[in-house]
Design brief:
The structure holds 2 protein chains of 2 kinds. Chain A is of the alpha/beta class. Chain A is about 20% helix and about 30% strand. The chains are: A alpha/beta, B alpha+beta.
Chain lengths: ~350, ~110
């Protein structure tokens, strides 16, 4: 069990800046994120796309923004719990109990939800019958490569992940790569290698094809694919792999009893608290009249939420507003030596 | 204002007025058209505003860029006439545009 002043759900730019705003007020925070690294959408969706509307930063990438934020929060002893998703929030004796899918438990007076549009989950193939084979013979990510040796593998997708795994598994398995159009998107050397293996007959490529059906029964033995002209082909298959990137799912957040507006959480604009005292929502996931889904708006929301978090975490202390330029207390917390 | 019609997989249709210059996605979101999620807010990063454009309209709309097609690869059940509605900018020429929303946006 981890006791902390604030649990932050989401390690995107807004969640990370919340660590800073809480930290300069002397509050400890713990950050939980479903991804394997900090940065949220900035890292997962557009690491290299330029961003032009961060105040006083004329241009930066999602990656550099994340790196700078991580640098900015270094002075604060905040832990990141990555690859973990918050499953459950319950109230006990005036505190919030936060439980993750890895059974980690946090006790805190404050929760800040900075969850963007939810947690990232792999996109799946549009064929319901495949779901019962997930984790056995249908996979959307590769964790144990040994499962894919000496098999007949059908790989769906046209991007880097699909191509990289097709090349890798073609060394020991019979690989069919299936994509909805003729163009593949990958690094030039990957595309070259793919072409070479295709010519050598070591990889079969089927385009423009998509999944149509699978055999009935307890195990996958073949799949059928079809193209735009409804032409159907049968492919003997033991394993199906799909690589369609990630999608954001709201997930368990919808079940926490918060006032929702579609996929967003309603907050007041004084402190970005939800209908539950001590639970805040900031960044893309919150909604209020005039809300803009901008990173800069999320930073403002983090600052205001952190004030209320202070009042709740330190009920016997008086909150005093301070500037980083002049407050010795803040500068000490930032580890600045003069 | 140009009228844009959205038809879902059950055949229900909704026609809305969308001001010139907005995207079809923005029009849908502002008018609560079901079936358009637009998780990323129009930055062409999520493919959850995916629509099928009726054949007669498909060629009248400026062609999708590579980056859009790459995103459509990720969409649920993409077809030849798939587009991301955040990349279709409404103009007088598109008055009467009809798009179909997919079964789901994941």
């Amino acid at each position: 069990m981890i006791k902390t002043d604030v649990v932050i759900i989401g390690a995107g730019p807004v969640g990370l800046f919340a660590v800073h705003q809480l930290g300069i007020k002397g509050l400890k925070s713990e950050v939980i994120d479903n991804l394997d690294k900090a940065g949220g959408q900035c890292i997962e969706l557009y690491p290299d796309k330029p961003i032009y509307d961060i105040p006083a930063v004329p241009e930066c990438s999602g990656k550099s923004l994340t790196e700078n934020l991580l640098q900015q929060i270094k002075p604060f002893s905040s832990n990141q719990h990555l690859n973990e998703r918050v499953q459950e929030i319950t109230e006990k004796n005036g505190s919030w109990i936060v439980k993750t899918n890895k059974d980690k438990i946090f006790v805190t007076p404050n929760i800040i939800i900075a969850g963007g549009v939810g947690s990232f989950e792999p996109r799946k193939l549009p064929l319901k019958e495949l779901s019962k084979f997930e984790g056995k013979s249908v996979f959307y990510s590769v964790t144990d490569k040994t499962l894919f040796k000496n098999k007949k593998i059908s790989i769906f997708g046209g991007g880097d992940s699909a191509l990289d795994w097709a090349l890798e598994f073609s060394k020991n398995s019979k690989v069919t790569l299936i994509h909805r159009r003729d163009e593949f998107r990958g690094a030039p050397h990957t595309l070259k290698e793919l072409e070479k293996l295709k010519v050598e007959g070591k990889i079969t490529i089927k385009t423009p094809f998509q999944i149509d059906s699978i055999n009935e029964g307890k195990e996958i033995s073949f799949i059928k694919i079809k193209n735009d002209d409804e032409k159907i082909e049968k492919i003997e298959t033991d394993i199906v792999l799909g690589f369609f990137g990630l999608i954001m799912q709201l997930g368990p957040i919808a079940k926490w009893g918060l006032n929702m507006d579609k996929k967003t959480i309603k907050v007041n604009t004084e402190n970005f608290q939800t209908n539950k005292p001590g639970i805040f929502a900031i960044g893309d996931i919150c909604s209020y009249p005039g809300k803009l889904k901008l990173i800069l708006s999320g930073f403002h929301e983090a600052a205001l939420a952190s004030v209320e978090c202070f009042k709740r975490a330190r009920p016997n202390e008086t909150y005093k507003f301070q500037f980083t330029t002049s407050s010795k207390e803040i500068q000490e917390r930032l580890g600045i030596k003069k | 204002m140009p009228k844009i019609t959205f038809i879902d997989q059950k055949g229900n249709s909704k026609t809305i007025d969308v001001a010139n210059g907005l995207t079809v996605m923005e029009g849908a979101v502002q008018n609560n058209v079901p079936g358009i999620d637009a998780d990323c807010g129009g930055s062409m990063a999520c493919a959850t505003c995916h629509v099928y454009v009726e054949d007669s309209w498909f060629n009248k709309i400026s062609k999708a860029e590579d980056a859009e097609n790459d995103m459509i690869d990720m969409a649920y059940n993409p077809k030849k006439n798939s587009r991301l509605s955040c990349q279709i900018i409404v103009s007088d020429e598109l008055d009467g545009l009809v798009v179909t929303t997919p079964e789901k946006q994941t």
